[in-house]
Amino acid sequence: MMDVIKQMKRITTILLVFLAISCHAQKGIAITIDDVPNTKNYIRNNNQNVLFEKLDTLNVPYTIFVNEGLLYKNGSLENNLSLLKQWCADERVTVGNHTFSHGRYSELDIGPFVMDIIKGQIHIGKYMGDSIRYFRFPYNDLGKDSIQHTRVNKALDSLNYNVTPFTIESSDWMFNAVYLHYLDQGDTAKANSVGNQYVSKTIELLHFYESLSSNQHQRSVHQIYLCHDNALNQMYLPIIIQHLKKNDYQIISLQQVLTDPIYNQKDNYHKKWGISWFYRWMSTKEERYHWMTLEPDFSEIETEFEKITKHNKT
What we know:
two-stranded parallel ribbon; 8 strands
């Protein structure tokens, strides 16, 4: 009888492992949006929260990371708080902290940085209570060395925050600057061309990380897409989401993505640059460099961004 029970337990364990592997073999991705709320864009849209409304029609879960300092810029605090409250009230939204002033941790002492985190949860804390558990570093700057990394991780643990990783980001901030440049010039055709390039490069980069995941981890890893609350995404993030669905990705919550055991792997990168967690999990800088050189070419938008930036300074 005992042998039968042991055999049944063994079979049950194997089945559970198989189900877990099967679950994570399905392609899943979480959408995360930094620098919410974009109060400047809100005014530009005549106090209409266009990105929020577009996402609402798609009925997908997503996570926002709030910079509360933005509430005190562009327009009245009362209107901006109404904007933030609209984001926080949606049951599909997970709300995270992105600090108050969006400063680089590597350039700050631990004390001021922690105070900026605490200051960044005042209003979202009123709306969300104790449910705020996710923190994303501005610029994904986790510190300039292992000492800074260790100090801030201890501080975040004491504040009951989980560091939020990402696997893919496609420089939407850079595309957005070029996109707005052409919109402001009245050249909608060129602006739309930039937006379409953003979509195609994002999908191309996603396929790259799929191949990296297969090579490094022998399976499809649940991914986390990082983008921003901006004019570009209010038009083109819904298109990217539709492309993801066509590529057999399920849009799932950040909480679901983080159940993938890959996110329990050690972070081996202790510098300030905001690289994908795929690279952080690699054990050597040579391996990181090798894969980085294989990434899709973004030189066209980089050149255009630099040209426009230089022109605006003159």
